[in-house]
Amino acid sequence: MKKIRFVTWLLIAFILLQASFAFSKNLILATTTSTVDTGLLDVLIPMFEKQSGYSVKTIAVGSGMAMEMGKRGEADVLLVHSPADEEKLVGEGAGINRKAIMHNDFVLVGPPADPAGVNSARDAREAFGKIAGTGSLFISRGDKSGTHKKELSVWPKTTLLSNTWYIESGQGMGAILMIADQKKAYLLSDRATYLSYKDKLKLVILYEGDKLLLNSYHVIEVNPEKFPKINHEGAKAFSDFLISPAIQKTIAGFGKEKYKGALFFSDAR
Amino acid sequence: MPVNYSEIFNIILLTFKVSGTALLFSVILGFSLGFFVALNKFPGKKILVAVINTGMGLPPVVVGLLVLLFLWRGGPLGFLEIIYTPIAMVIAQIILATPIISGLTMAAIQQVPQKMIWQARALGARGLNLVWLLMRETRLSLLAAVMAGFGGIISEVGAVMMVGGNIKDQTRVMTTAIVLEAQRGEINMAVALGLVLLALSFSVNLGLTIIQQRVKNR
């Protein structure tokens, strides 16, 4: 009998332990991998939590999955970078109050030897065309993320993405930088993630500067009229937090010293 | 990057909280189910045994996906609001470990000679008394079942990643932290965490093994 009582107490203790897992009010933020991989959110989220009292659950998936979570009401607020899909999301009424937060640009990264010769390309399409033309190894996110969507829009219309040289990895930005580095392959990366990984890579930036390669991030609140269960107050607070002058300054200054150049440029007015 | 020891300590602590809680519940459920199936005759028993045996090899990502669908706000249990919390991770791990423990328990009990059970029953052992007797008889196998269950969940990454979300300071455990560090290219950190996980797993199993071997020699 003593043993059974002991087990009962053990159970009660464990249940109490579980109760300590209960948090203050939750806010689910679905976002892209680049905001997490660069460490930007590691800086911003604790500031927001302290200021607002919300407990933020940051789910780092591609922008595609993040917006899918928004469409299903499984997230409260989105921080994403896939403009065409974002407009569609807002148009469908799943998201509201889309606001520009920050931007940087995408860069074409590859092995220093540059076997495809993209270095001399005049624009992004030509650079991509050269990779396809020479059949040089290229690693794609392949996950419907903002970066993947951008990459697909840059390939010249006539290009056939053949699996002899075009590899779909299905992983996050940081992960495929590591893969491309090992395989001496080309890839399209957002500048911020590339810079924050640069020390670990042999890959270099081989093409940059085309307007087509602009990378802009927006915050979108999930529509509370469509999903009454969501934490809209928290979403609004997070959105206001991101566009506040002080935080915009933090974003613009993020990583500046460490990487000798800004990772993000602030966009909110 | 400077190593943040308090963060690592919290990750280790959470790993044990989650897997320890899951193991406790899995042992209770797994033993009960294992004993029930082994000691009773009922229609469909063979099918249930086959289901349990299949469950011993459940792919963690499939379990993760199912738990995710149930616990999402739009899912049938969404009102509980436990998705992306350690509780969700505990649930996923219970689903993974319970079949392992009940399957091995079942096998252990079925190895006990039927004559011994008859004899015990004839001498008046009923219900909990009989269970207690059988537990003592099969303690070696039962402890092995507990170890197998623990090994299954402490090393698991797919399910906890999905239902926990690998959120810093909230749902990041050893395995998901290792995946993240490896993707970030922090290979040294990933290896260090991996060694810590191995060491911790070894010490828990060492503890259980010592208990196991001690009862054997008594």
From TrEMBL, chain A:
Residues covered by the PBP domain: 25-245
Residue runs in coiled coils: none
Pfam family, one: PBP_like_2
Protein's name in the database: Tungstate transport system substrate-binding protein
Source organism of this protein record: Candidatus Saganbacteria bacterium
Lineage: Bacteria, Bacillati, Saganbacteria
UniProtKB/TrEMBL annotation, chain B:
Domain of life: Bacteria
GO terms, biological process: transmembrane transport
SUPFAM superfamilies in the cross-refs: MetI-like
Locations listed in the record: Cell membrane; Membrane
Main location: membrane
Coiled-coil region list: none
InterPro entries documented for this protein: ABC_perm_TupB-like (IPR049783), MetI-like (IPR000515), MetI-like_sf (IPR035906)
Gene Ontology CC entries for this record: plasma membrane
Keywords in alphabetical order: Membrane, Transmembrane, Transmembrane helix, Transport
Membrane-topology annotation of the record: Multi-pass membrane protein
Domain ABC transmembrane type-1 positions: 12-208
Positions of transmembrane segments: 20-40, 47-71, 83-109, 142-167, 187-211
Family: Belongs to the binding-protein-dependent transport system permease family.
Designated name of the protein: Tungstate transport system permease protein
